[in-house]
Write a structure and sequence with these properties.
The chain is mainly beta. Strands 1, 2, 3, 4, 5, 6, 7, 8 and 9 form a nine-stranded antiparallel beta sheet that branches. It has two helices and nine strands; from the N terminus they run H-E-E-E-E-H-E-E-E-E-E. The chain is elongated.
Length: about 180
């Protein structure tokens, strides 16, 4: 009986395709953020650089990964806004220069993992799409909506402060990404 179980286990493991490790190309990848005012249509958009990342792919599924973002690279066309975002009211990049997303798994086109931002780790889920490129690279695209207050960023949140009027900032922000990676 024990031999039959071991044989069955080995057969199942052999049927699972081997996973290859892919390394992210930060120069070919793009991460865009958008914040929103509570009132009106103000929605500033900018970028942040992915500094490095890896994931495993078995030919059909992404299995796991780790992605690091250099929060000091937050960019936007308004220099004053960039300075504020890099400061202690928002991302406090002097204390927390890196954000990390650890991908646990992808099922039915939905990624599940944990994001660490400002020293706070929270579970996140979002849809993604994987595209095989002709040169053997993979492109992973998607869009995630995050509640900034879950990571301790409460600045001008109507959930924490009253009578903000037009100064209120929505808790939710959006991240859109296109990550390009090459097999190791």
């Amino acid at each position: 009986m024990k031999a039959l179980f071991i044989l069955l286990l080995c057969t199942l493991l052999a049927a699972r395709p081997a996973a290859d490790t892919y390394r992210v190309d930060p120069t070919a990848s793009r991460v865009t953020w958008t914040g929103y005012a509570e009132v009106g249509g103000y929605a500033p958009t900018g970028t942040v650089q992915l500094s490095r990342g890896t994931f495993t792919y078995d030919g059909r599924h992404l299995r796991a990964g780790r992605f690091e973002f250099d929060m000091r690279t937050i960019a936007q066309e308004q220099a004053q806004l960039v300075e504020h975002l890099r400061g202690p009211d928002f991302f406090d990049v002097a204390r927390y220069p890196t954000a990390v997303f650890v991908l646990d798994n992808v099922q039915n086109g939905t990624a599940a993992g944990h994001l660490t931002l400002r020293g706070v780790t929270r579970p996140v889920q979002f849809p993604l799409t994987l595209t095989k490129l002709p040169n053997g690279q993979l492109r992973v695209t998607g869009k995630a909506t995050l509640d900034r207050t879950q990571f301790g960023i409460k600045y001008n949140s109507a959930s924490f402060f009253q009578n903000l009027g037009s100064y209120a900032i929505r808790n939710e922000c959006a991240l859109a990404f296109a990550v390009v990676a090459q097999k190791n």
